[in-house]
Amino acid sequence: MYHNRAYISFPLVPAFLLGVIGCLLATKGLAQVDERITIKSEKPIMKAAERFKPRPKFIELEFETLNNFRIRAKSDQVGDADARASQNLIRQAKLKFPLILKKDANLIGGLSYRHEQFKFDRVSEPGYPLYVQFEDKPLKRIAANFYYKRNMRNQHFFFAFLNNSLNSDDPQFENFLDQLKSSFSIIYGKQVNPNKQLGYGVSFGYDLGQPSVFPLFIYNNDFSLHWGLELLLPKSTKLRYSPSNELHFYATTELQGASYHLQNEVLEGFERLEFRRSSVRFNLTVEREIHDWLWIGGTLGYRLPINFFLSEPRERRNNSIILLDVKTAPYFNFSIFVVPPAKLYKKAKSSG
To answer: How many domains is the chain partitioned into structurally?
Structure first.
């Protein structure tokens, strides 16, 4: 036996690009950067480095619940009332699939379905219309996503993300444009080395519950075999620790928002309304392999609300009909998901 000394690194990807880059073609090879290690093995050093990188998700089912948080509704039109949300339940299914796989250009498609509902108790005004009409009301989101990445000269890249979704308690073709919510992001960046990416861009979406535009900055660095950092500011930060190929831990902070067009009557005198919410979420996640291609994940988190309100379509918070003061709450998320088998994934990377 003898010692091989080498510098080792691997590619990184933004958090929300994981499905795209992983299924395609991540990066070739290794480079002499960051950390010097000693490996007692005659096997190629590349294999030792690759085993700590999570594989992309293709199919995912999620179950999330928040329980027992207080809500105060304030309105000049219908009055004020307090209640407890005994449950806020969210179920979600996601699918990603490749559309174009080329050396310098990749296009990934995605479909998703989300179903959200509330249950209330301890209502201070038993007939208050919001709590009566929102009890078990299905809030649905049907979405199609597209991820595009183009590799350019001098290690630069261009990335674009587009999402179109129908968001309503009763998705249908009537009032289609009111239900349709579109968001997009574009990023121009550079692969500084096989371990590091930097980039900047702009995003339009509903992360704050209402339409908003803001600049983006990305910084991704797998700074050791076990640790990685992914920043997509101001939307999310993610710190990853991977002790092995079969186990990954994440600490994440993220902005999350939603906007639903309500077609069925909630308040008398208002035929159509919009329910909007946004929050900052802090969470700890563990993901574990139970079979080569099948994984499970569990998340414990804490939600800090920013905006919760009901308004007429296309109106903003200042013109809300009911303004909701929602208290902070812990939440739990369970997921089961499918990843590419290890042999297939390595083969796709080596051919990319």
So the answer is: 1
